[in-house]
Backbone:
């Protein structure tokens, strides 16, 4: 018995729906690859799952943007509104301007000079180089003056510090000499005071001194 026909309707079971989506998505992308290789067709497939995740495939010989542009031309349908068209034109303008600037930059580097055929173009390039060189020299001179100014400031600070250290050394030497003189003066004054206190004590000591006979029995004999 053959398989029965499956009714095409939304699968209510979340797990079964996810499994079916994964299988059929892979099958669809596989068929797109096969027709692209077998028939040399330009194929692009974009799939969004219910979760919002995107899956895509595009033939190796083309891009999704190219396919959309071709679709726009052949179908006559506007894929972009006026705002997006203006944005696309602005992007094209910026790309062209960037390409022009890249060419000019190569010329300033001395590259692709052979592409300049007119004398006016060469003169304009030479003038631009001279202007740039003058600006570079001005900037170098400005930096050089700034360096010299910083050197002078550092030298002034160095001399100021040396003077401060020298003055501190002089102050310390003067303080040591003053402290030595003061200490010596105090020592002399203290010594003189001790002498003055000691001198009056000598008579007082002799005044109270009583001579004792060496032999006590001498008095008895006399």
Residues:
């Amino acid at each position: 018995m053959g398989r029965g026909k499956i009714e095409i309707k939304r699968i209510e079971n979340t797990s079964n729906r996810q499994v079916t989506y994964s299988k059929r998505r892979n099958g669809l992308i596989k068929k797109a690859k096969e027709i692209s290789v077998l028939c040399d067709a330009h194929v692009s497939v974009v799939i969004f799952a219910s979760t919002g995740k995107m899956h895509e495939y595009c033939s190796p010989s083309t891009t999704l943007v190219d396919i959309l542009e071709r679709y726009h031309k052949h179908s006559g349908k506007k894929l972009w509104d006026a705002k997006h068209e203006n944005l696309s034109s602005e992007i094209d303008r910026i790309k062209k301007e960037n390409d022009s600037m890249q060419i000019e930059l190569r010329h300033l580097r001395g590259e692709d000079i052979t592409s300049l055929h007119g004398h006016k173009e060469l003169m304009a390039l030479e003038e631009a180089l001279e202007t740039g060189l003058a600006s570079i020299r001005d900037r170098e001179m400005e930096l050089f003056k700034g360096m010299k100014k910083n050197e002078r400031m550092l030298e002034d600070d160095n001399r100021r510090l040396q003077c401060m250290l020298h003055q501190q050394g002089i102050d310390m030497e003067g303080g040591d000499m003053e402290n030595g003189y003061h200490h010596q003066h105090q020592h002399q004054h203290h010594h003189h005071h001790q002498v003055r206190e000691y001198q009056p004590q000598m008579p007082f000591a002799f005044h109270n001194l009583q001579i004792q006979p060496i032999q006590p029995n001498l008095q008895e004999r006399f």
Observations:
- Residues 197-215, 218-222 have pLDDT under 50 and may be disordered.
